[in-house]
């Protein structure tokens, strides 16, 4: 740790790490993100007459656009996991670790960036759902994003708990097998996050119908368990990352 790093506050380190990670992500995603936004803009600008023409004479074109939106949304929704896991194989990773920013600041910056991306994709998906209504008929509905249970819970589940669970498993398997097992880690992390969510919803407990806790208690337990689990997984992942790559150094 350099003297310059010791003078920086954690907030300043996170700010610098967030700027660096944002620049890296921009160069990876600006083409697909720009394409996605361009398609939404084109749909928004289409006059009603053009939509009617496409419904009657170019059904295949609407289906193609619809499928493209679905694929792009799915890829966008898994970005929090991608943002957390892929930097460890990046050629810039050794340089980043030798820099002035702490590992905790860089990991927290990637986590914040992943949550922001997830929020942006949810909003973009809801916008796409509204725009695709222009091609709807009485018997056909196209792209539709239904956010359940609610926006903030989805951010906690998909932006914090699931990506951190996948990262923790990814780093464990990387240290044990010396392999970058992205797909397996993703699905195992998804399974673990589902177990955590079930515990947060008290699904392992059975209450008498007349003794069900008030909603505010159930909600409080949910947020406590989910955020507590996210904090624990963050700490475990951070410790694994430090142990794994400090040994290599």
Can you give me a brief rundown of this structure?
The chain is an all-alpha fold and 249 residues long. It is 77% helix and 0% strand.
Written overview of the protein:
The protein has helices spanning 3-7, 10-45, 48-57, 59-77, 79-85, 93-97, 103-132, 151-177, 182-200, 215-248. The protein has 249 residues and is mainly alpha-helical. The chain has two domains: 8-90 and 99-146; 178-248, no CATH class. Helix 7 crosses helix 10 (215-248) and helix 8 (151-177) packs parallel to helix 10 (215-248). Residues 1-5 have low confidence and may be disordered.
Q: Which geometry do the CA atoms define?
A: globular
Low-confidence stretches: 1-5
| Mean pLDDT level | 87
> Assembly state here?
single chain
Radius of gyration: 22 Å
Q: Spell out the helices and strands N to C.
A: HHHHHHHHHH
Helix content: over 70%
Return the structural class.
Answer: mainly alpha
Strand content bin: under 5%
N-end to C-end Cα span:
14 Å
Instruction: State the major sheet.
Output: none
Count of DSSP-assigned helices: 10
Q: How many structural units, i.e. domains?
A: 2
Number of strands: 0
Keywords: Membrane, Transmembrane, Transmembrane helix
Any chance you could write out the topology, listing elements then pairs?
Elements: H1 3-7, H2 10-45, H3 48-57, H4 59-77, H5 79-85, H6 93-97, H7 103-132, H8 151-177, H9 182-200, H10 215-248
Question: Characteristics of this structure?
Answer:
single chain, 249 residues, mainly alpha, 2 domains, 10 helices, 77% helix, globular, disordered N terminus
């Amino acid at each position: 740790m350099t003297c310059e790093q010791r003078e920086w506050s954690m907030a300043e380190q996170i700010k610098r790490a967030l700027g660096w990670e944002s620049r890296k992500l921009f160069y990876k995603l600006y083409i697909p993100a720009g394409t996605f936004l361009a398609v939404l803009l084109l749909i928004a600008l289409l006059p009603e007459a053009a939509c009617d023409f496409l419904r009657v004479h170019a059904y295949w074109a609407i289906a193609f656009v619809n499928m493209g939106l679905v694929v792009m949304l799915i890829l966008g929704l898994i970005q929090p996991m991608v943002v957390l896991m892929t930097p460890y194989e990046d050629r810039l990773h050794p340089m980043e670790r030798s820099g002035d920013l702490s590992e905790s600041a860089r990991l927290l910056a990637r986590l914040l960036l992943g949550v922001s991306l997830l929020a942006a994709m949810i909003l973009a998906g809801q916008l796409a759902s509204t725009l695709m209504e222009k091609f709807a008929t009485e018997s056909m509905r196209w792209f539709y994003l239904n956010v359940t249970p609610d926006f903030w819970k989805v951010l906690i589940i998909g932006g914090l708990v699931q990506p951190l669970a996948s990262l923790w498993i990814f780093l464990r398997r990387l240290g044990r097998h010396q392999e970058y097992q992205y797909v397996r880690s993703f699905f195992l992390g998804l399974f673990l996050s589902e177990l955590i969510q079930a515990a947060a919803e008290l699904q392992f407990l059975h209450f008498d119908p007349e003794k069900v806790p008030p909603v505010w208690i159930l909600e409080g337990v949910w947020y406590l368990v989910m955020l507590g689990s996210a904090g624990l997984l963050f700490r475990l992942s951070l410790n694994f990352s430090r142990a794994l790559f400090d040994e290599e150094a």
